[in-house]
Amino acid sequence: MHNPSTPDTSPTRHLGSWALIAAVVAVTVAAFGYVGGWLAPQRLTPKRLVDQLQDNAGTFAGYRRNHAKGVCMTGYFDSNGHAQPYSVAQIFTAGRTPLVGRFAIPGGNPYAPDGSVPIRSMALRFTQANGQQWRTGMNSMPVFPVAAPQAFFAQLQAQQPDPTTGKPDPAKVAAFFAAHPETAAFRAWAKTAKPSASFATESYWSLNAFVFVDAHGTRQPVRWRMVPMATDGGGDAGKAGDADYLAADLAERLTRGPLRWQLQITLANAGDPTNDATKAWPDDRRTIDAGTLVIDATQAQESGPCRDINYDPLVLPHGIEASDDPLLPARSAAYADSYLRRTSEEAHLPGTVAPQPEKQP
User: Fold this and answer.
1) Distance (Å, rounded) from C-alpha 90 to C-alpha 95?
2) What b/e readout covers 25-57, taking b as 16+ CB neighbours within 10 angstroms?
3) How far apart are CA 134 and CA 156, in angstroms?
4) What pLDDT is attached to residue 348?
5) Number of helices and strands (H, E) in the chain?
6) Distance CA 51, CA 337 (A)
7) What are phi and psi of 262, to 5 degrees?
8) What span, in angstroms and rounded, lies between the C-alpha atoms of 11 and 114?
């Protein structure tokens, strides 16, 4: 009879233990497989999303799969300290924080005419004195078309060009919008939106909500916007026939002095949606002037300091956290997939210097 005080070394006991371990491993592998899409071919993965971007715009080796056409810029943020009561992030302490950024237009074609879309983007990487980074990507529209990654993927599928015409099928696009009434606010904005003549005269919205955390651990949902101090020349889209006027306009403006934006941070009230980028918050929400963004130099993206930066919106310093918006982890994962593709391609292009891996903050 087996003595409970002595180890059981019987083969049956060993087989039972190994079976339990194998079962745990199998469940773990299955979980990772499901998350990665390996065991669920129809599950939306970063690869499927980025593949669809390529299907829509083509593949241009060494370039981002979205917002491919852009220009690097450098400068700094001058904080006035007004946001410090809401976040312990060092960038909001009164003083100056350097940045490396990028202006761009949507789409995966780096040779697209600047006037082809009415949207511009601003991406920034702030590096705090303590080494922590804040990376943010903003767009010149107040709301996003859809609220979920799956809906964004469906939108890309609907807008994929027809091989026979080279343009999206209007019936598929119409069917998508009919099935997604949450796009109404974006479509209303798009009806009157026109391509601007300058990056410098645009406002840029965070679109997604984030959370500020103060010194006591109090959490405050926020959105932010960069509001330009330059207001001239924002109506018409450059010179007739000029496909590349945005970078030239930016360089010309900088010969006359730095360009500035005001960082406005909007504080949510209880009940304001933090998980739906299609819904703007009411105009009466409290907004803080947190300081001034200053851009003082620009450089071509092929050789500029922004080339090898992944503007992942989830690279956040202590004091800023992600909200429950499902678009944020999807953006982060898709950016990582795109980054790995383009940097791998750059390393094999003749006459180019291989990109250096990013240091993690």
Assistant:
1) 9
2) eeeeeeeeeeeeeeeeeeebbbebbbbbbeebb
3) 29
4) 73
5) 7, 10
6) 10
7) -100, 130
8) 72
Residues marked as catalytic: 67
* 7 contacts: CB under 8 Å, gap ≥ 6: none
pLDDT score at 240:
56
For residue 233, what pLDDT is reported? 59
- The secondary structure of 55-112 as a DSSP string is HHH---TTS-SSS-EEEEEEEEEEE-STTTTT---GGGSSEEEEEEEEEEESSS-TT-
Q: Tell me the two tokens of residue 92.
A: 């909001």
Q: Which phi and psi (to 5°) does residue 66 adopt? A: -145, 155
Contact 89, 60 (CB under 8 A): no
Neighbour count for residue 257 (Cβ, 10 Å):
8
What's this model's pTM, rounded to 2 decimal places? 0.85
Task: Give residue-wise pLDDT tens across range 238-259.
Answer: 555 689 999 999 999 999 999 9
The rounded percent of the chain whose pLDDT value lies above 90 is 80
- The structure tokens 């019987």 sit at 10
Please report, as a single letter, which amino acid is at residue 41: P
Q: What gap in Å lies between CA 142 and CA 277, rounded to an integer?
A: 9
- Which among 329, 69, 11 is positioned nearest to 199, based on CA atoms? 69
| Domain 44-346 CATH assignment equals 3.10.20.600 | no
Q: Residue 241 gets which letter from DSSP?
A: T
Is residue 291 packed enough to be buried (19+ CB in 10 Å), middle (13-18) or exposed (0-12)?
buried
Residue 292 CA to residue 55 CA, distance in Å, equals: 39
Cα gap 278→155, rounded to integer Å: 14
Q: How far is CA 225 from the centre of its chain?
A: 14
Query: Among candidates 176, 170, 138, 177, which has minimal Cα distance to 313?
Result: 138
| Confidence tier at 93 by pLDDT (50, 70, 90) | very high
